[in-house]
Amino acid sequence: MADVRMGVVGCAGRMGTNLLRQIAGTEGAAIGGGTERPGHDAVGGDLGALAGLGDLGLTVGDDPRALSAEVDVVLDFTVAAAAAEHAALAAAAGTGLIAGTTGLEPDQEAAILAAAGKTAIVRAANMSVGVNLLLAITRQVAGLLDADFDIEVLEMHHRHKVDAPSGTALALGQAAADGRGVAHDDAADRGRDGITGARRRGDIGYAVLRGGNVAGEHSVIFAADNERVELTHRATDRAIFARGGVRAALWLHGRPPGLYSMADVLGF
Ligand code: NAD
Fold first, then answer.
1. From the CB of 34, is ligand 1 less than 6 Å away?
2. What are the residue numbers of the active site?
3. DSSP string covering 18-57, please?
4. Which helix (H) or strand (E) holds 97?
5. Is 10 in the pocket of ligand 1 (CB under 6 A)?
6. Any ligand 1 atom below 6 A from CB of 205
7. Cα-Cα-Cα-Cα dihedral of 245, 3, 51, 215, to 10°?
8. Which residue from 10, 44, 119, 230 lies 20 to 30 Å from 61 (Cα-Cα)?
9. Whole-prediction pTM value?
10. What are the residues whose beta carbons fall under 8 Å from the beta carbon of 181, sequence distance 6 or more?
């Protein structure tokens, strides 16, 4: 079978370069091209040079429409505004999409959902195997423990991250809410500062740390009187997200239109 041709939008970014290396090292996958935002220094240069792969003879472009038409699957780990545009282009071209960008506004999320009516999309705030296991376990534990156990989601990321709480933290909170059978947005307490009053029973609280080059740490804490259960995942290298993204792209190729999750990809 021919290799699945993968296009990386945002190819000069931290995730973009990891994805290029991962695609290059994955059997059945081939680098089909890459784009950056217009005006980025990398545009016009060689794609391989960005990721330490040597010259590939492929030029970094700035036209995601052309890229969508050339490849089988587009991998998007960019910024929220661009993610919505990339989804519309993938839908128009009938190209598969791995939608990894986080921090999307509701209208941008809606754009991804609309695109999934026309093409196959895997959407996940976190593509690592371990975090997807943590999501499944969190849902289960939240279903087993009642509201005597306060749920807190704690996350830490590198100093460059622009959105908070992380998409993964919010997905963990959503999993906890689902497990408990409550509406996430009613229970979520996303920021505490000053005289906040006592904690509301049943709330799902969030706490955010930023610093250094931390690839991503997430804990879900179930705290009752005199006992605490803590579930934690620590990512030490963002290569785990690229590995999951490329695995999802291989899985996605040839699927009918729809919105798929990493749980679908991994069979959880
Ligand atoms: P980054 O800033 O290093 O990279 C983003 C890249 O996108 C930059 O190179 C930027 O120039 C480029 N870009 C911006 N606008 C563009 C456009 N219109 N067209 C093409 N490229 C454009 O950020 P990062 O650390 O690589 O993270 C990117 C996104 O991926 C973030 O939203 C992050 O939260 C998310 N992320 C998701 C996962 C996951 O598993 N789903 C894992 C890690 C990061």
1. no
2. 157, 161
3. HHHHHHHTSTTEEEEEEE--TT-TTTTSBHHHHTTS---S
4. strand 96-99
5. yes
6. no
7. 10
8. 119
9. 0.87
10. 143
Q: Which atom of ligand 1 is nearest to the CA of 124?
A: 41
Is the distance from the beta carbon of residue 19 to the nearest atom of ligand 1 less than 6 Å?
A: no
Nearest atom within ligand 1 for CA of residue 35: 20
Taking only the tens place, the pLDDT of each residue in 203-253 is 999 999 999 999 999 999 999 999 999 999 999 998 999 999 999 999 999
Instruction: Tell me the pLDDT tens digit for each residue of 177-193.
Output: 999 999 999 999 998 99
Q: Collect all residues with Cβ–Cβ distance below 8 Å to 267 and sequence separation of at least 6.
A: none
Mean pLDDT of 5-32: 98
Where do the H-state alpha helices sit in 60-211? 64-70, 80-93, 106-115, 129-144, 167-180, 184-187
The CA 11 to ligand 1 mean position distance, Å, reads 9
d(CA 209, CA 103): 16
Distance 166 CA to ligand 1 centre (A): 13
State whether the beta carbon of 248 lies less than 6 angstroms from ligand 1.
no
The topology (CATH level 3) of 4-123+238-266 is: Rossmann fold (3.40.50)
Question: What is the side-by-side strand order in the sheet with 227-235?
Answer: 188-189, 204-210, 150-157, 216-224, 227-235
Q: Could you state, in order of their start, the residue ranges of all structural domains in the chain?
A: 4-123+238-266, 129-235
Which CATH architecture fits 129-235? 2-Layer Sandwich (3.30)
Q: Indicate the burial class of 189 (C-beta count within 10 angstroms; 0-12, 13-18, 19 or more).
A: middle
For residue 13, report the distance from its CA to the centre of ligand 1, in Å.
6
